């Protein structure tokens, strides 16, 4: 093809449709090549792609030299008639293609779509009498879709083209609707007759997605069409996945049991046995750009009589922080994160044990519960509102439903994950786990649920299908609670604490090796000196991970490239929390 372009061959330079004598001469200059069936298919797909790009003469030259037409003669005539608006010719070509359809019953639908386009174009041009003839003589006899026909008949009363396009949702004859019509009817024909639309684009997209699915460290929001086709896709771990500790936060005086990033990624809350919750501010350094660091914001005290912080939950608007104390505590506390003001203290019964909580989407209501059978719906405005008795709750999450309501997902002491609706007081069991549930975490898009199961690892559930998508193994179990977290721009990563003082990170979407493999082994991050009880992905800085440990510290993990730059900025005092920051005892770099 390049040689033809360089030589200025008539195969490329002809204007309009060449007559038969010129084509015969061109065929002598460009003799057909003997191609295998696979190569003939490739030529057709490439020719279609060139034509879609507007390179019609290049597509014609390719087809001529290969001796391989893109589609049958009747299909080519049908395409040409539709694009030119020759509707009688399109109907005649369709009649000759009728026997080539996948299903005979599809003919009436194609004929209806052709007549519909013809009818709308006539209305757009103001030819109402001709449009009425098409409505009565073409569309009505087909009896394809009475509702659709009724809507079309109402359009004849439109006062002009603008109202027609607005009411019909049709962009007009000049708006690419003819090509869209062709794309919609190509599905009814075998590929040997008419290629599916954008076939090469689809194949390229599938190839890139397959490579991405095998990339163990893919942690980017780039879509497949933004990735290069010139080399196989492979992400470098150093540039995408948290692997290096960039900060050690040592403000706590005892074991740290929980860490949670706020939904906007701006705050990190940590809590543990020292009976304080610390709010940290996440800042992205200007130099180097995109290297986030945290600094101490404020310390919130819950009182030593409560036995420490058992759980922390951020409101969806990232404004309020809710704290549940240890097992014997009977109240929960809500703070305003920016100022540290105590907004609400809730206590219902002296025998309550409220150790877990989750917010509803309105950032006012929340649910709290514990394993003594107390399960409440509360609000910041009112306090306790509703109760579900005798429900021994281990962990809570919330999820929006299709009807606009909110479902509460509760893991109970019977290893069940159950769905509760406080607005209708309905409940059901979604699924049952293999063993006692320790904790659970829901993805940002609310489609995945990571459940930590005692002695069984982390199970990743698809909430739409109610099936276990992955069983993630490799962490070390013990008698203490572990919390997992789902993260990454595409929610493809799961991280969890472990009793061996390491952080486990899985790419649950990775199909590397055996594509049917259900038991994926994690990458492990070392550095802590004690059990890692909780981890949290930053929902905005997708390469940022926090981990809380019994060694009284919280560690911040970044990709190696960002971590090195952040450490350098901290050393010379140019980054957030740089020179002088570690002197307050809250943070040191490692």
UniProtKB/TrEMBL annotation:
GO biological process, one term: proteasome-mediated ubiquitin-dependent protein catabolic process
InterPro entries attached to this UniProt entry: CTLH_C, LisH, WD40/YVTN_repeat-like_dom_sf, WD40_repeat_dom_sf, WD40_rpt, WD_repeat-ST_regulator
Keyword Cell wall biogenesis/degradation on entry: no
Domain CTLH: 71-130
SUPFAM superfamilies named in the record: WD40 repeat-like (SSF50978)
Domain of life: Eukaryota
WD repeats: 249-280, 525-557
Coiled-coil region list: none
Keyword set includes Repeat: yes
GO cellular component, one term: GID complex
Record's keyword terms, sorted: Repeat, WD repeat
PROSITE patterns: CTLH, LISH, WD_REPEATS_2, WD_REPEATS_REGION
The protein's name in its UniProt record: WD_REPEATS_REGION domain-containing protein
């Amino acid at each position: 093809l390049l040689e033809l372009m360089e030589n200025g061959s008539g195969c490329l330079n002809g204007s309009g449709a060449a007559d038969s004598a010129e084509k015969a001469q061109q065929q002598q200059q460009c003799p057909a090549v003997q191609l295998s069936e696979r190569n003939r298919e490739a030529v057709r797909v490439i020719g279609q792609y060139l034509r879609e790009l507007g390179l019609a003469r290049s597509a014609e030259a390719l087809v001529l030299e290969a001796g391989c037409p893109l589609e049958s003669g009747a299909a080519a005539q049908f395409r040409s008639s539709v694009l030119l608006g020759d509707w009688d010719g399109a109907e005649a070509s369709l009649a000759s293609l009728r026997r080539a359809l996948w299903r005979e019953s599809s003919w009436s639908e194609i004929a209806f779509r052709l007549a519909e386009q013809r009818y709308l174009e006539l209305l757009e041009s103001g030819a109402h009498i001709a449009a009425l003839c098409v409505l009565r003589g073409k569309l009505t006899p087909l009896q394809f879709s009475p509702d659709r026909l009724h809507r079309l008949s109402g359009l004849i009363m439109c006062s002009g083209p603008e109202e027609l396009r607005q009411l019909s949702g049709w962009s007009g004859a000049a708006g690419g609707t003819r090509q869209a019509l062709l794309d919609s009817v190509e599905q009814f024909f075998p590929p040997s007759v008419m290629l599916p639309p954008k076939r090469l684009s689809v194949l390229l997209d599938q190839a890139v997605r397959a490579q991405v699915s095998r990339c163990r460290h893919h942690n980017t929001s780039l879509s497949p069409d933004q990735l290069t086709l010139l080399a196989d896709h492979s992400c470098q771990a150093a540039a995408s996945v948290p692997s290096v500790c960039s900060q050690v936060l040592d403000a706590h005086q005892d074991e740290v049991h929980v860490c949670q990033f706020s939904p906007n990624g701006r705050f990190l809350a940590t809590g543990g046995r020292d009976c304080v919750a610390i709010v940290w501010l996440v800042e992205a350094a200007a130099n180097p750009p995109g290297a986030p660091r945290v600094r101490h914001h404020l310390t919130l005290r819950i009182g030593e009589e409560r036995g420490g912080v058992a759980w922390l939950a951020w409101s969806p608007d990232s404004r309020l922080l809710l704290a549940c104390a240890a097992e014997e505590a009977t109240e929960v506390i809500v703070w305003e994160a920016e100022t540290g003001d105590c907004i609400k203290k809730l206590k219902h019964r002296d025998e309550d044990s409220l150790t877990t909580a989750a917010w509803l989407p309105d950032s006012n209501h929340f649910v709290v519960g514990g394993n003594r059978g107390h399960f409440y719906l509360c609000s910041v405005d009112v306090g306790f509102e509703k109760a579900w008795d005798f429900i021994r709750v281990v962990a809570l999450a919330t999820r929006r439903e299709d009807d606009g309501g909110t479902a509460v997902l509760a893991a109970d002491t019977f290893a069940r994950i159950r769905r509760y609706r406080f607005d209708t007081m309905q409940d059901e069991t979604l699924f049952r786990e293999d063993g006692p549930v320790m904790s659970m975490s829901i993805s940002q898009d609310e489609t995945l649920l990571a459940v930590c199961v005692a002695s069984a690892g982390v199970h990743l559930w698809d909430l739409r299908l109610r099936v276990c998508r992955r069983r993630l193994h490799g962490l070390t179990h013990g008698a203490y609670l572990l919390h997992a977290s789902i993260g990454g721009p595409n929610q493809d990563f799961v991280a969890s604490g472990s009793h061996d003082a390491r952080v486990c990170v899985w790419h649950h979407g990775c199909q590397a090796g055996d594509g049917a493999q259900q038991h994926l082994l994690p990458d492990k991050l070392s550095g802590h000196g004690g059990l890692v009880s909780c981890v949290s992905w930053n929902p905005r800085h997708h390469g940022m991970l926090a981990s809380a440990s019994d060694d009284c510290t919280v560690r911040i993990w970044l990709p190696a490239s960002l971590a090195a730059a952040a450490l350098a900025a901290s050393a010379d005092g140019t980054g957030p929390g740089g020179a002088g920051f570690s002197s307050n005892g809250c943070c040191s770099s490692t």
